[in-house]
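Lab intake sheet, docking and co-folding queue.

SAMPLE TYPE: protein with bound small molecule
LIGAND NAME: magnesium ion
LIGAND FORMAT: SMILES
REQUESTED OUTPUT: full 3D complex as structure tokens
PRIORITY: normal
SUBMITTED BY: R.K., bench team

The fields below were copied directly from the construct record.
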Amino acid sequence: MSNPRLKIRNLSLRFGERVAADNINLVLQPSQVTCLLGPSGCGKSTTLRIVAGVEPQDCGEIYLDGDLICDGLTTTPPEHRNIGMMFQDFSLFPHLNVLENIAFGLRGTRVSCRHRSELILERVNLSGYGSKMPHELSGGEQQRVALARAVAPRPKVMLLDEPFSGLDERLRDNIRDETLKVLREDGTAVLMVTHSPSEAMKMADEIALMRNGKIIQKGAPYTIYNSPVDCEAAAFFSDINVMESSVEKSLAQTPFGEFFAPGHADGTRLDIIIRPQHIRIDFDRAGRGPSPTDAMGQAARATVYRARFLGQISIIDFKLEDGLILTASVPSVFLPKVGTLFWLLAPRKHCYVFPK
Ligand SMILES: Nc1ncnc2c1ncn2[C@@H]1O[C@H](COP(=O)(O)OP(=O)(O)OP(=O)(O)O)[C@@H](O)[C@H]1O
Ligand SMILES: [Mg+2]
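RESULT FIELD (auto-filled):
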């Protein structure tokens, strides 16, 4: 099998007491987009800076197409790594016009460089801007030129540190999709930083979820959303409902009946998690009659405590008979009155059971 485009092995870096990157391992294939996702300060930019070669690691190795580029002792300088980068604090060369900025790092004939620069400029929606100077451009336009400049030389790996964050929403989606398309066509592997779960879900083939310098979970968006490793990982992607319980004979009692908790000792405190969109509302019985049970488990009776219309969805807070408040989200064709009774269900396949 051929070598991966980028391989990061056991990479660590400490700033004094602070471990900014803690044993990072990642493998990226050509054309693959991997998002480093996590809260502020978790080590995303640090990881990118080490890969770029602008920050030396304490230990660990990085390979590009199978060749070692740094291992803490020896290092290939940034300009010889064939790695493109676009960080938030980009700057254009002020004395060069837009086309000259983009062509700056290109090799080849004048004509081929100009041709490539014009093509990329078009992809970032700036055709016709080639002869403008950077000071004549808006902030968002400058950002797109910087993106074009980073993409133009067809780097083997592209590092993007929240490069789309300054653009307005519609333009952002468009520029982001176009940029990634060009990079994929060139076989470039993309390692991208974001703290927005929805952006990561939209773009990534693989998400690496980070916390305190560590990658705590890696996987395709579907997997990482639906099989979180812990409560915090679940909460990073959406609001969650938490039901507290403790184990008795491998079972945990909840308002929705018993949950299996195999492998947990009696008395272990558990959090049982369900996302708002996974709570099922039994519209037929409107909270009347005996508790319905079905394959999804036992129902719990609840009254509408607060209901908010948000356009695409409505958010409904329910109060259960034991006082627990659970939040459900439903398509916004439905907005019940406060005080209405319903039976709720918590389908087991959408519940996660974690020890506290
Ligand atoms: N040059 C430095 N000297 C000392 N500490 C640093 C340095 N660079 C980063 N750190 C610390 O390392 C940790 C990780 O920083 P990093 O910039 O990688 O976070 P991040 O995940 O990119 O956060 P954000 O989303 O806010 O950009 C932080 O606690 C930060 O304060
Ligand atoms: Mg950062």
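REVIEWER NOTE: The domain at 6-234 is CATH 3.40.50.300 (Rossmann fold).
SIGN-OFF: pending second check by T.M.
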